[in-house]
From TrEMBL:
GO molecular function terms attached to this record: hydrolase activity
Family according to the record: Belongs to the QNG1 protein family.
Name of the protein in question: Queuosine 5'-phosphate N-glycosylase/hydrolase
GO biological process: tRNA modification
Pfam families (alphabetical): Q_salvage
InterPro entries assigned to the protein according to its UniProt record, in alphabetical order: Q_salvage
UniProt organism field: Chroococcidiopsis cubana SAG 39.79
Keywords: Hydrolase
Top-rank lineage group of the source organism: Bacteria
Length: 321
């Protein structure tokens, strides 16, 4: 019997962790690390209405799908013109929220026609900067693809895509992964390594935004893995759960770009997923009802603290995070 798509993510992450040359999980530290986490203080995941559109349920679906179609670019964010006191992600989410509030949700046909210049206007960016011109081009391409996909398969209906998942987060990941911009898969030696970070996050965000009801109800949310981006591994590195080989650590600390699809980048992401699985297992042994989704939210918020922001995290220019 073949593995489901999320079990394939877990199995490949474990395989990479075993083989890894640049990243090591300090498994012996996990019991003490887990014991030190104030996990009882972890609040339920939520989307802040200051930065996210949370109006009509159908428009929320359109917002979450539209946002997560372009929820990448962390390797470009040092060049992004950010809103005061907001990160790159919150700048993007807020600008899109304001567009929904002033003009309503995008229609699929609109998404098909959007240009890099349109994206620059929506996100208040200047295309003179080459990295930003490249990023806005990628945003436009991702939105064009989403629009065509909705028209070709769901009569242009965002909700139709979600309904086709039949209340399964795992099925929604499979459906989204039919689009190339969501096909978050790398090859490590001879191992195919899927991550599906944005596809998984789409299911999580729909559930959070809609209270796991209506279009946001999924009966298998605990199946999701942690979302392998560049912040969660950074938190685990600062917390000494992940240990980086000296040359990789030096590159990151010098704020050099880590190439997309390199052994180093794949190991960072895969070891993050496997480390999270080990942490969740230890938390459950201690009686905590914690999923990878809740752990992700906890660690992501932990990463907003000054001691984590003070140190460089890895930067990769990719469409996957």
């Amino acid at each position: 019997m073949s593995l489901g798509i999320l079990d394939r993510v877990r199995a490949a992450a474990q395989e990479v962790a075993v083989r890894a040359n640049y990243v090591r999980i300090d498994e012996s530290s996990i019991p003490a690390y887990v014991a030190s986490l104030p996990i009882e203080q972890a609040s339920s995941p939520k989307l802040d209405p200051r930065y996210h559109y949370l109006g009509d349920p159908r428009e929320i679906v359109a917002y979450i799908l539209t946002l997560n179609a372009i929820n990448f670019g962390s390797g470009y964010f040092p060049h992004l013109q950010k809103r005061p006191r907001l990160s790159g992600y919150f700048t993007i989410a807020t600008c899109l929220k304001e567009r929904f509030e002033t003009r309503g949700a995008f229609r699929a046909r609109e998404l098909c026609r959007l240009t890099p210049e349109d994206c620059a206007n929506i996100f208040e960016q200047n295309l003179i900067k080459p990295p930003i011109r490249e990023l806005m081009g990628l945003f436009a391409s991702a939105w064009n693809e989403l629009g065509r996909h909705l028209l070709d398969r769901y009569e242009g209906d965002f909700v139709g895509l979600v309904n086709a998942a039949d209340s399964s987060a795992e099925r929604l990941v499979e459906l989204l992964a039919k689009m190339p911009h969501f096909q978050d898969i790398q090859t490590y030696s001879n191992v195919e390594v899927p991550f599906y970070k944005r596809a998984q996050l789409t299911a999580a965000d729909l559930s959070i935004a809609l209270g796991n009801q209506s279009f946001g109800f999924f009966n298998d949310l605990p199946r999701l893995t942690i979302f392998a981006d560049n912040l969660i591994p950074h938190v685990l590195r600062v917390d000494n759960v992940l240990q980086y080989e000296q040359s990789l650590a030096a590159k990151i600390d010098a704020e050099e770009l880590i190439g997309a699809g390199t052994e180093e980048e794949i190991e960072i992401r895969a070891c993050t997923i496997h480390a999270a699985e080990l942490i969740v297992a230890q938390l459950r042994r201690l009686g905590h009802k914690v999923s990878a989704l809740k752990l992700d939210y906890f660690l992501w918020n932990r990463g907003q603290q000054p001691e984590y922001k003070a140190r460089p995290r890895h930067r990769t220019r990719t469409i996957f995070y």
